[in-house]
Task: inverse folding
């Protein structure tokens, strides 16, 4: 069965298009991505609820992937500590070929079916943890092998792919499969497939962090105050919650080191 992700583009003669024609047609293709993800919301919901049960008891979340898929997992995982104030190592992205593959492709790394599990063992993975395999094709050996071993060891698994009835979908306990159709450049899954994968990862990590209490109302009260922009944002959140002036809010924030602690201290009269 031919993979949709490898199907010929809906557009011909890309090299003859003007710049505007290229952009209009790429944008036209991109418009189907959010709709494809929408169709997977029930599957994503079921997975998040299962993953949350483990994470609330100390379990971790791992992303494994190769190439673009691996990089997307690393991006999402690396954003969780500064955004939600969780410790590094709670959400972890692992890419085939190791960290060197983040910037430069490592030849044939994705074809090693045993390596993902070896990489996961470096983190002393346990039954309390959860693994999401990310592979647009749904057939990457690195990802498939990792999920197979995880299941054998009682670890919760999910797969994000963009081909129906893929091996990844059949291997994972939870299958999330946004079908975005052929890529604008035939086979270039860094485009629509990659965008769909990132949208799904956004949904998963954000929803989990909210359920774990890392958001108050709609505010990032546990964000890391790593630059002036975030200190300013944190100060304004404190103002919204306490109605004190900017200077007083900034003093509180710098004294207690987090938005949440500053607000709690103010309300407790400290």
Result:
């Amino acid at each position: 069965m031919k993979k949709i992700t490898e199907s010929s583009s809906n557009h011909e003669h890309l090299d003859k298009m003007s710049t505007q024609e290229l952009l209009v047609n790429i944008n036209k293709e991109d418009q189907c991505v959010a709709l494809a993800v929408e169709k997977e919301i029930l599957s994503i919901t079921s997975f998040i609820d299962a993953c949350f049960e483990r994470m609330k008891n100390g379990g971790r979340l791992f992303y494994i992937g190769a190439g673009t898929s691996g990089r997307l997992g690393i991006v999402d995982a690396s954003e969780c500590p500064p955004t939600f104030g969780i410790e590094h190592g709670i959400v972890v992205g692992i890419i085939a070929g190791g960290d060197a593959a983040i910037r430069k492709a490592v030849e044939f790394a994705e074809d090693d079916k045993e390596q993902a599990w070896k990489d996961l063992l470096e983190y002393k993975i346990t039954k309390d943890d959860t693994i999401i395999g990310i592979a647009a094709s749904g057939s990457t050996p690195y990802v498939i092998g990792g999920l197979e071993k995880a299941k054998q060891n009682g670890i919760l698994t999910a797969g994000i792919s963009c081909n129906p009835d893929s091996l990844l979908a059949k291997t994972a306990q939870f299958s999330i499969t946004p079908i975005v159709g052929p890529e604008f450049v035939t086979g270039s899954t860094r485009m629509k497939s990659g965008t769909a994968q990132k949208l799904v990862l956004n949904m998963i990590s954000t929803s989990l962090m909210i359920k774990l209490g890392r958001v108050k109302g709609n505010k990032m009260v546990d964000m890391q105050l790593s630059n002036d922009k975030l200190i300013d944002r944190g100060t304004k959140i404190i103002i919204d919650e306490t109605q004190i002036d900017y200077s007083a809010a900034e003093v509180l924030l710098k004294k207690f080191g987090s938005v949440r602690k500053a607000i709690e201290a103010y309300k407790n009269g400290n």
The chain has a mean pLDDT of 95. Residues 14 and 21 are 9 Å apart (CA to CA). Residues 228-267 form one domain. Strands lie at 61-65, 91-95, 130-134, 156-160, 174-176.
